[in-house]
Write a structure and sequence with these properties.
0% of the residues lie in helices and 49% in strands. Strand 4 and strand 5 (52-57) form a beta hairpin. It is mainly β and 71 residues long. The protein starts with a strand and ends in a 5-residue tail after the last strand. The chain has a six-stranded antiparallel beta sheet, with no helix packed on it.
């Protein structure tokens, strides 16, 4: 099950290696594993074998779905 990360406020809850999915207006844009992110959580780089590595900025209107919270 995928839970919504605190989007669009911050994406600082995802960690490198987490599986994520990025959507815009309800449409899936890219999915893969977090390759890197800025310390403030505003930018993530997501890598997928078939689609390559892409950078996403929180201000561009993407919704980020990530792993369920631990615990």
């Amino acid at each position: 099950m995928v839970n919504r990360v605190k989007s669009p406020v911050r994406w600082d809850e995802v960690e490198i290696g987490d599986s994520v999915e990025l959507r815009r207006n309800g449409a899936r844009i890219h999915a893969g594993h977090v390759d890197a992110r800025t310390a403030d959580g505003d930018v993530v780089w997501v890598i997928a074998p078939a689609a390559g590595r892409r950078m996403f900025h929180i201000a561009d209107g993407y919704d980020l779905a990530g792993p369920p919270p631990a615990g």
